[in-house]
Design brief:
ten-stranded antiparallel sheet; 149 residues; mainly beta
Amino acid sequence: MKKLLLAFLALATLTFSSCSDDDTPAAPRLSKVMATINGTPLIFDYVTVERQQYDGYADLNVVATTEADPDNWIKFTFQEGVTGTDVFWFDFAYYIDFIWYEKTGDVNLVVTENNENRLQGTFSGTVEHWDPNVNEPITITNGTFDIYR
């Protein structure tokens, strides 16, 4: 009888300690770029990263937009694997309603994490149309990016 009771307890222990039937996958990590542009907070939640290989290094081209407004996007490029303010070369632009605004000398991009899994950092500054008579410069503040690769 004791053997039967021990076998029953062992079976019950295995049954109750096995995996649960909850097969819900973990929530995906959402990449996003956020910034305040001319005083309006925006979240760009559709983010792509393109790796461009060169001789001895690679650049990462980041483009962020929203599904709701694909004509409003932000783009920046920096060297893969480099953190800090000296990211070798970086390109930065903002595009809205078919008008392209490029960085001027006062755009600041700080990369705090740059590896095969994640890109993080901050940015701010002023972008201008190539013809300053066409549109006013655009001020970007509180810019952050958190991108999963």
